[in-house]
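Posting for a labmate who doesn't have an account.
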Amino acid sequence: MSSETKPASQTEIASETKSPEIELLFTGLAAEADKFLVGASTVALIRNAGELILFDTGPYAYRPILQGRLRRAGVDPASVSKVVLSHLHWDNAANADLFANAEILVHERELKAAGRTSGRDPAIPEYTIRAINKLRLRPIAAEIELAAGLRLVELPGHTPGSIGLLAGRRLLAGDAVGNAKEAVAGRIGSHVAGLQRATDSLKKALEIADIIYPGHDRPFRVGPPIAYVSDYELRIRLFVDPAGQDEELHFGAAAAKSFATWPGN
């Protein structure tokens, strides 16, 4: 089975705000399955005054697709100056090693939790810890300004050191806001660092932002009412009969692209 989410159109978002510019390389997918973990996470490229910043890097399965989308965006991984990791889970931080020249910004509480010899979050793979320790790691202890109008914010709860990136009134939230449904309900579904912390961080995110880019969903306006900025396309192909035709599910607007170009599309 293979699936792909197409990055949502940024025209409407960009028209409402000036720089920094946020370009979605991957749009998170709000989906669950009974046979596997979906793990489709938001990955964003931020262009700010000539600087290139990446927010999260996605799961390892993104790797060739991420490299292709960076090429089409005219971005050499060596030119990315900062990589902000919202947290260290397998579906968010697995490709940080592609950016050897970048500062890797991670909250120190996240690093401490990842380094535990017992009771460590099982969603943090050991290979991720080994990889980032070989990079230009920059532990973050508090909220900081990265540049004018660009701020790292603390959003603990989903994990001890979850952070987001606030660009004006637009927030890249990681899994502190997993999807729009959690925003409506006022409660996030996954919180290894405590429900109250997670609830407080969700409330904070909704207060400081007008538009939120969730960890596993497309961007939405805080409102009220909470509403998606735009639709997106999703195709799922099921390889169910080796001698016959595949089955395909298609959500959203019709698209002309073929799976023959995936993952290079």
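Reply:
Got it, the structure tokens are right above this. The chain has one domain: 2-232.
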